[in-house]
Every structure is written in C-alpha cells, then in structure tokens.
Specification:
CATH class: Alpha Beta
Bound molecules: thymidine-5'-phosphate
Distance between the termini: 11 Å
Helix content: 55-70%
Radius of gyration: 16 Å
CATH topology: Rossmann fold
Number of domains: 1
Strand content: 5-15%
Number of strands: 5
Number of helices: 8
Length: about 200
Amino acid sequence: MSLFITFEGTEGCGKSTHIHKLTERLQADGHSVRVVREPGGTESGEQIRKLLKHGPKNLTAEAELLLMNASRAQLVREVIRPALAAGEVVLCDRFYDSTTVYQGAGRGLDAARVQAIIDFAVGETRPDLTILLQIPLGISEKRRANRRGTDRFESANREFFQRIEDGYAALAKSEPERIRAINADRPLNAVQANIWTAVSGALKS
Ligand code: TMP
C-alpha cells in the first residue's frame, strides 16, 4: 500500500534513528519501504546537498530556496512518484515544511513566494502524514555543539533556531490533520510508540 510520510524537526531531534526503526517495523509487517532524504536523495540532489551544506558562506537566501527546491523537484519525479506508483511506503527525511520553516521563518523570505516555489517543485505530490519531532532548543544546541564539523545551517545563531522552533509549532497548529507533533525529548520507545500510532492510523485510512 502506498503512503508518503515525511519527517521534520530541528537539528538533533532524532529523525534518522526514528526513520530507521520505523522502516524495520514496516518491513516486518510486509511493506516495501523507500527511504530518502532532503536535500539529496538522487545523484543530482546529493551534489546540490554538498553545495547547500558545505558551500560558500555567502550563498544568498534566495539561491538557497531555489537549490532546495531544485533538489526536491528531481527527487519527486525521479524517486517519490515512481515509488508511490509501485505501492511503496516512502519515508522522507525532511520535505517542503523544512523550506517553509528554514527559508521562510528562519531566513525571513516572503511566505507567499516561498510557497509558490514549493508548489512548482512538488506539483500534486504531497505527504499523507508528517511526523514533527520536537525537542527543546537547549537540547538541540548541545547536540549541535557535540557534532564534529558544523555545516552552513548548524553554525547559525540561537535566534535563527528559535525562529525554526516557532515556525514548526505554527505549522503544526495550522495543519493538525497532516502534521503530528511528537515530544521527542523522551525515551526512544515512547517516541516510537507515538510514531507507530500515527503511521498505523494513516495506513488504515
Ligand atoms: P540534515 O539532512 O542533516 O538535517 O541537513 C539538512 C539541512 O538543510 C538542515 O539544516 C535543514 C536544511 N534545510 C533547509 O534549510 N530547507 C529545506 O528545504 C531542507 C529540506 C533542509
């Protein structure tokens, strides 16, 4: 059964671990699962990812917005649509909500323009369910500090990450049907149980 699930959250919220655990559970239940990430997930997208994460510091917010969506347009057409058409469950580590929050709320680009670019990049391909993993700002800060090299995003200041946190909270409030906000500052199994409840609900509907 095809289902498109995206994962969102700030740096260090545990997305990768939870995607990995969910994949194992879905596969054990007989689902065919495709895991992808943004930016990236295709050969062209991974090249764009390098530029976005480790490219020149003076990359403008506008260029960042367009590159994120160039990667997304490729991923949607090369991987996501064919996988969904083949009946797979697609788990995507970040999708367009990251753009709304990072380039919109975070970088301060005009929300309507950001939305127009997203719409152009994804067309009709929209997530059935979005899992938003929320952790307190202080914990995300500590986890970022513990990482070896920081990238263009991780080196942003506290105000930027406060806008990201607020942006995600506002988004979750505005689309409660699609976006499930889960407190990820709890033991792994408790968070997984919440994720599984949301996913099994989506699989049934
Ligand atoms: P990550 O895959 O390690 O989380 O790194 C991706 C970074 O890119 C992360 O800091 C969030 C950022 N990002 C955006 O700013 N806009 C987007 O649309 C996406 C997909 C990611």
